[in-house]
Amino acid sequence: MGKLSDSLKRHSAKKPAVGEVQTAYEIKLAEHGLTRAQVIETERKLAKFANTMDSLVRVPFTKQGVGADAALSTIPLAGDLAGLALTSYAFILGRQLGVPANKMTPAVRLALIDMVVGIVPGIGTLLDIFIRPSRKTLGIVHQHIHEEYGITDTIHMDRPFLHQSLEDKQQNSRFWRNPIVAWVYLHIPDFLGMIVMISLVWGLWSIIAWLVRLFS
Fold first, then answer.
1. What is residue 108's predicted lDDT score, i.e. its pLDDT?
2. CB of 44 within 8 A of CB of 156?
3. Dihedral of the alpha carbons of 131, 108, 154, 61, in degrees to the nearest 10
4. If you average pLDDT over each of 111-115, 129-133, 154-158, which comes out highest?
5. Which residue, among 71, 70, 69, has the nearest Cα to 83 in the 3D structure?
6. pTM (two decimals)
7. Residues facing residue 57 across a β-bridge
8. What is the SS3 string spanning 113-171?
């Protein structure tokens, strides 16, 4: 019984206190010359870039969509090379946050695959919707700062442009701090996307019905 008690005491003694964990995170931030605010600001910058490159126009109420990378891939070779060059900006931001180069390897590999596949006309552009190296980089970076700096917030990553705008509005008006108003504002693109999709379906149905009547 005494041995079990001693073992439990030793185990509990090894467990770091919350303050010690927090201090360890602060030390790691200081080693890279960063503050928590700087990390969050840089990650938001990366989220904005990833959003522009890979999911600027989203399928309503999902994170799937298309961005500038897919648009560039419609230009044979030159557009794919330009997309690769732009994607390197995401890697630079990741390195600024102290992410080791070896951790970035999967995203770099995906970017190279994206360039090679994008050369194929039509198919490359379609696959660009699913091959998203900038968002892959964002995921790697967020995992790193979670483990190394203890930053778990994601609010600055999801819809970064709208969140930034909403934060500015909330500083000047209580109206925008209302949870319902904030939610509606952040989902305006989804509502607009739904309207566009419904309009396209209705328009296609109308054309098909007109053709059926024309040839019947």
1. 93
2. yes
3. -10
4. 111-115
5. 69
6. 0.74
7. 66
8. HHHHHHCCCCHHHHHCCCCCHHHHHHHHHHHHHHHHHCCCCCCCCCCHHHHHHHHHHHH
